[in-house]
Amino acid sequence: MTSRTGRAAVAACTVALAVSLSACGSAEQTEGDGEASANAPSGKGDDIRVGLLLPENQTARYERFDRPLIERHVKELTDNRGEVVYANAKQDATLQSQQIDTMITNKVDVLILDAVDARAVAGSVREAKEAGIPVVAFDRLAEGPVDAYTSFDNEQIGRVQAQALLEALGDDADKGQIVMMNGSFTDPNAAQFKRGAHQVLDGKVTVGKEYDTTEWKAEHANKNMEGAISALGKDEIVGVYSANDSMAGGVITALKAGGFSTLPPVTGQDAELSGVQRIVAGEQFMSVYKPYGPEAEAAAAMAVALARGEPLDTIAEDTVDSAGTPDIPAVLIPVVPLTRDNIQETVIADGVYTVAQICTERYRAACEELGLR
Questions:
Q1: Which of 207, 267, 41 is nearest to 134 (CA)?
Q2: Which end of the chain is more exposed for a tag (fewer CB within 10 A), N or C?
Q3: pLDDT tens per residue, range 183-217
Q4: How far lies 302's CA from each of 24, 51, 319, in Å?
Q5: Which tens digit of pLDDT belongs to each residue from 72-109?
Q6: Residue 205 forms beta bridges with which residues?
Q7: Which 3-state string (H, E, C) describes 170-188?
Q8: What is the side-by-side strand order in the sheet with 135-138?
Q9: pTM of the complete model
């Protein structure tokens, strides 16, 4: 992964939700919709069709944030004339390939693709390319000749999680073993999270058990954690690296059932509502807050530019490499570690959740303790 002009410029352009990413686009785009249409090399102008392919509907972010945000930004960038054609693969790679085929047949102008299986989708990406349809890899870097990519700095996420776990362990880091609950082996992001975490953890803790969790599912994480408790013994486990909040929920359920009177620190990612509530309650130590707005803005801006035939050099200031495709223009979004100390300043201040949504009856006392009212 290399940088063209530095990540500071990317962060400045994308972190603030109030600033439209169209301001980071080409000169033609910033002059107004009419002029952008006139200068579009593809001749498409604002009348474009964007195929949006998301991988599953179990993780709350896809339907709650990603889909509506991308739809909104495409409309904003095309004077309400752009159309988003949506499909969700429900964690089925074969279904997603069929959905891509349908969008190719229906001649969408560009695809935004969050792959179920980054390797398996490569053939479909090539078919889109052969049909003249550019592909923006969204959140996960699909293999094949993708034209652009936006996600978070995934190794940074792993490092942030691991550093938080070390801080939570403190002097207990060398008094037992940790369990690592990584994401699915079919997701290239999971490998990057794991790599970043190991960069921080290796040499500082003993990893007693480590799992690649099928399909990121909480039930699989729960079974893996049960196996780890059985193999290591509950008195030996001092912490759990969990790659996301959904799996953290399964891990914590297993820890409770395994007889832990005091839960060891457990990490997470995605700032899901249930994860935030567990953090409030002191059951989960942290999550990673990823501002989905800037990621969605970047995806929409790159997709619209590609559909119009415009360059990406003023939108995407980083590059990444995938298998067989080097120097892919990329926008990488910074992340924030979320703990009990900054819930107010992050997910509440940014309007992701209200205090009422977080502080239901079950969590009211803990919320009052934190000053969340």
A1: 41
A2: C
A3: 999 898 999 999 999 999 999 999 999 999 999 99
A4: 10, 13, 14
A5: 999 999 999 999 999 999 999 999 999 999 999 999 99
A6: 202
A7: HHHHHCCEEEEEECCCCCH
A8: 2-3, 318-322, 325-333, 148-152, 135-138, 110-113, 49-54, 83-88
A9: 0.75
